[in-house]
Design brief:
With 273 residues, the chain is an alpha+beta fold. 29% of the residues lie in helices and 33% in strands. It is built from seven helices and twelve strands. Strands 1, 2, 3, 4, 5, 6, 7, 8, 9, 10, 11 and 12 form a twelve-stranded antiparallel sheet that branches. Helix 2 runs antiparallel to helix 3, helix 2 runs parallel beside helix 4 and helix 5 packs antiparallel against helix 7. The longest helix has 15 residues. It starts with a strand and ends in a 5-residue tail after the last helix.
């Protein structure tokens, strides 16, 4: 895991990023992302981010995500998406309420990334995920509140470890739910606990096992960008079988999603009277 809490410096100068090439020039990438959100077509924004994900190391996901995570810039992007009929429809189709107790809102998708908002602490359920890894690296920026995370390692013995059911998680939700395949049991040992506060960002690699464990009523909003997938599925560890109702994805009505996003904007970039 890599932690970063440095704010971005918005640079509006420089040549077009496609004529110059990336060459790991993250400052230029951030500048082009910002300019495109402010004035350019969103399709071009998707292409810029896709090229950046392909042309830079995994660590650069932090910088790419932070370019969008500036509260005012992100608010503009959300408004532009909501005001575009096709983009708004894609937003509605790809977003859903997660059984673990948070909103998962996919703002933008490209050939090798997804840019999404997670809003925890918005239901009667306290966020308590099963332990899992991911099939891609991702960077996350905390926009509001804080996020409590536990990190785990697989171990061959039960010493200071917990025995859990091991599932293979298939994230294909075309049927309205995801699927799991039981592979047996495994021992996992908690290695660390981290709290990420508003303004902090971190990078998670695909094989890092973790879970979010906020207390009831602890609200947080994060912006996440996923990178190139390294596998078709990921691993999930739980104390019991996953119920079928827990695999369902609850979709939003358009007016409900607009209301949720209005509330997010008010929290991350409140209007001054």
């Amino acid at each position: 895991m890599i932690l970063k809490n440095k704010g971005i410096a918005l640079d509006y100068s420089g040549e077009n990023i496609f004529t110059m090439g990336f060459n790991n020039n993250i400052a230029l990438c951030q500048s082009e992302i910002t300019k495109c959100i402010l004035n350019g077509p969103i399709e071009l924004l998707s292409n810029i981010i896709s090229d950046a994900v392909d042309s830079t190391p995994e660590e650069a996901l932090l910088d790419i995500n932070q370019a969008v995570a500036n509260p005012l810039i992100l608010s503009i992007l959300i408004r532009r998406i909501l005001n575009d009929g096709m983009l708004s429809s894609e937003l509605l189709n790809n977003s859903y309420y997660h059984e673990n107790g948070f909103h998962k809102i996919v703002l933008l998708s490209g050939r090798n990334f997804k840019l999404r908002l997670h809003h925890f602490g918005v239901s009667y359920k306290a966020p308590m995920e099963n332990i899992h890894d991911h099939r891609w690296p991702f960077a996350s920026s905390v926009l509001y509140g804080h996020l409590n995370m536990e990190l785990f390692k697989l171990t061959k013995t039960s010493e200071e470890a917990e025995e859990l059911y091991h599932f293979i998680y298939d994230s294909d939700k075309k049927g309205g739910s995801y699927s799991t395949e039981l592979k047996g049991k495994s021992f996992l040992r908690k290695e660390n606990t981290r709290t990420f506060n508003a303004g902090e960002s971190y990078l998670m690699l695909p094989d890092e096992l973790h879970r979010i464990k906020n207390n009831h009523g602890e609200e947080s909003i994060t912006l996440i960008i996923t990178g190139n997938p390294v596998d078709a599925n990921c691993n999930l560890y739980a104390k019991r079988s996953i119920l079928e109702r827990e695999k369902l994805t609850v979709k939003y009505e358009h007016k409900t999603l607009v209301k949720i996003l209005d509330g997010i904007i008010e929290k991350i970039a409140p209007q001054k009277n």
